[in-house]
Amino acid sequence: MIKKTKKKNLMNKNINKHKEYNMYEAIEILKQNQSKNFIESVDIAINLSINPKKSEQSVRGSTVLPHGIGRKIKVAVFAQGENIQKAKKYGADLAGGNEIIEHFKNKKNNFDIVLATPEIMPMIGKLGPILGPKGLMPNPKTGTITNNLKEAIFNAKKGKIKYKNDKNGIIHTTIGKINFSNEYLYNNLNQLIVELNKIKPMHSKGNFIKKIVISTTMGIGLKITNYKLQEKL
Question: pLDDT tens for residues 22-71?
Fold first, then answer.
């Protein structure tokens, strides 16, 4: 913990947190100050022009990042009958019905994405208190309730992320690892921005994306200024 504090103090001293950077500058600064002990994730916080207290303005969805997030994704699938074997064939790490419901009840969950076919949803409602707080409960808005298991598992493994605004109207998610190329990180962020703009609530006023802050696992947040879709690095 002492080492982490020293590093952050040094970054706070050498980096102007109040300055706004373009995407390229921000990535370069994060790379210059990355941890030497492990490969950090690159995280994004996007402040949206919404009223999070109004349900019709909530923002929730998912997207497949073109370059993934830099780690293996573990996928569990709730299904019945032949869909169980299909899920395993398509690459699910765990697939089943009642038997894996018990797995989630009795064992530590280490899955990144949980999928389900529509007909089994009434059976897994009891897992709400377990999966809900972790953002893993299957939901049609994020494409995790589906009959197209092949596509859903493929997308999950490739690098599908889910996002949902918090109580302050901010989206928090990851767009990759610090060892990604600048182009990869830019492309991943660009894809996220594209998807967010597609689901902009009709009651959102002004600029939908008010502010973007980029950081690493152990780093400080840097503000990105004048971010535009398809800008060049």
Answer: 888 888 889 888 887 889 999 999 999 999 999 899 998 889 999 999 98
Give ranges for CATH 3.40.50.790 in the chain. Answer: 75-158
For the stretch 125-137, pLDDT in tens is 889 888 888 888 9
Burial class of 58 by CB neighbour count within 10 A (0 to 12, 13 to 18, 19+): middle
CATH superfamily for domain 16-59+165-224: Ribosomal protein L1/L10, rRNA-binding domain (3.30.190.20)
Could you read off the pLDDT of 195-207 as tens digits, one per residue?
A: 998 999 988 878 8
Residue-wise burial string across 155-164, b where 16 or more C-beta atoms lie within 10 A, e elsewhere: bbbebbbbbb
So what's the architecture of 75-158 in CATH? 3-Layer(aba) Sandwich (3.40)
Structural contact between residues 192 and 44, judged by C-beta atoms closer than 8 angstroms: yes
